[in-house]
Amino acid sequence: MSLLSIALSGLRATQTSLTATGHNISNVNTPGYSRQQAIQQTSIPQFAGYGYVGTGTQVADVRRLASDFLTAQVRTATSQSNELDAFKGQIEQLDALLSDTTTGISPALQKFFTALQTASSNPSASEGREALLAEAQGLSKSFNTLYDQLDKQNGLINQQLGSLASQINSLANTVAGYNDAIQKSTGSGVKPNDLLDARDEAIRQLSQLVGVQVVQQDDTSLSLFIGTGQPLVVGNKVSTLQVVPGADDPSRHQIQLVSGSVTQTITPQISGGQMGGLLAYRDTVLDSSYNKLGQIALTFADAVNRQLGQGLDLSGQAGGMLFGDINDPSITALRVLERSGNIGTVKTNLQITDTGKLNPSDYRLDFDGTNFTARRLSDGESISVTVSGTGPYTLSFADSKGEGQGFEMTLDTLPAAGNRFTLQPTRSGAGDIRNTLLKAEQLAFAGTARAESTTNNRGTGSIGQPKLVGGPSPVVVGELQSLFGSGLSLSFDSASNTVGGTLPPGATLSYLSPSTSNLVPGQTNTLRLDYTDPGTGNSYSYEFTLSGVPQAGDSFSLGFNSKGISDNSNALALSGLQSKNTVGGSAGASFNSSYGGLVERVGTLTAQVRTNSDASATVLKQAQDSRDSLSGVSLDEEAANLIQFQQYYNASAQVIQIARSLFDTLLGSFR
User: Fold this and answer.
1) Other CB atoms closer than 10 Å to residue 73's CB: what's the count?
2) Which residues, including other chains, have CB under 8 Å from residue 42's CB and lie 6 or more apart?
3) Is the Cβ–Cβ distance between 74 and 620 less than 8 Å?
4) What is the pTM of this model?
5) Residue 243 and residue 230: Cα distance in Å, rounded?
6) What is the rounded distance in angstroms from the CA atom of residue 349 to the CA atom of residue 231?
7) Could you report the per-residue pLDDT of 354-365, keeping only the tens digit for each?
8) How far apart are CA 391 and CA 529, in angstroms?
9) Could you report the per-residue pLDDT of 621-643, keeping only the tens digit for each?
10) Rounded distance between C-alpha atoms, residue 610 and residue 320, angstroms
11) Could you give the CA distance from residue 482 to residue 502 in angstroms, rounded to a whole number?
């Protein structure tokens, strides 16, 4: 009977091993499955006088071949790889938009200035003027289209965040359910291998969506934390993620964690997974691209409008604006966003005062009931706030060096204590630019003043055309007519090497170079005519040159350019904007260079992300291979095990047959 019992124990153990092997084979393609192995041990032997006699075998455990360390490695690598993939997917779209010859700004800028140069060569021809208007329209549409694409990408990110939050909540509930089932199953002291695999796989899938930290609890449950330790799953208790419009900016959706009755915004703490990648892209690339593009558009529109306003059109009137007013009231009100939950109502406006000082950044403004404090969000620098007026109030801003930020804000009343505002001076600049000048003859290509030498001069002195270097935009034609009258006559005095004449009240003449006190005959002298209108207080400054060697009594005249149909001096000044460092001030860059810098920055980041993504994919594959070397199912190995266990089974059956034969022989001896 002992021999039969031993044989039966072998059959049972071998059958369990065959079952485990069959289970492995059937789950070879199951994601997250860890292969299992039946662990045998000898049964308790019996003492028989002459020694202990074995009683067979038994299955001690069906072991799950898995390593928490290798599983954690796969989870971490999965989170990093998916974060970079999500980042890469977004930035590659932006890189293609910015550098494309159809949607990019550089080709449109080049076409605009080419058309301007063509029109300036024949300023009285309508064909060139019409072509310039068409290119201006195309340029503004290029800015608008690129802004719309950025806006669309931001909207899609908001949608994706909502979808990811729903998937995260679903998987978190799944993990909590597995925690509860595993905790109940382990009450018998046996580990539920398949449930453990399913839980690990659910957590791995969760790590594709967001970075998670896993903590093993004493009751065999796993607690999951996201961000900087915010609990997502604790035992069978689950917190919920929700995506809501941002309190500071409704267009930038934020992530909130709801735990019972407590809700907290955790967007800044989120990292890893697809959600972390989308948020990182939005914070580091998309927002700065919005603002940089807006800075270029605002600076371009303002520079062109100002220069046109300092010239005369074909009717002899001050030039009109080619592009819409950057401080149109319908725009200025939208540059200030009140924080959700602010107390009271405050009417606010943000006006651009100097596009050359604009920074491509948003600002945060807080009021504590007494003082305003501000911070530039792009670099975190504290910005000082100066308040003037008593209602409406005007706020001006300066950095630690005392440099203005290029804008000011007005409020009809002081806000309540604790109120916060988000200031976006450049955010929508590319979307707001519009071509508003419809009549080509209103393009101000002519300068406002002209100069000429008297025909009977005896010397070789010559006067250059005056250039308006300072003045209002648009100029006031009546004020200039008051300055020049029928013409200012300047006569050369050989004794003092000076020129002079009768100037109207408010006008002064000075020497800039090479001497500041008189003319230097034979050299090119630069002079300046300054004028402040006594009635309005508007100031004008003209610079012009006197060269050659004038003779005593030689005269020169300065006058209002009332017949400047064929004059292109202001058109040439407008063309000069193409190479002028306008964006970011004199130390900044030209329009093309500034846009090229944006394209280069995005392109460099795109290349870096691609490299990092490839490296992360390699790390993930290595982690998966390491995990599979222990936990993965090999069909070749399992096939060998089947043959081995089949032989064991046959051998145990043979022992049973022998035991039966012996038992039959024993019974036969007593018959």
Assistant:
1) 18
2) 54, 55, 56, 57, 58
3) yes
4) 0.89
5) 16
6) 41
7) 999 999 999 999
8) 39
9) 999 999 999 999 999 998 998 99
10) 48
11) 13
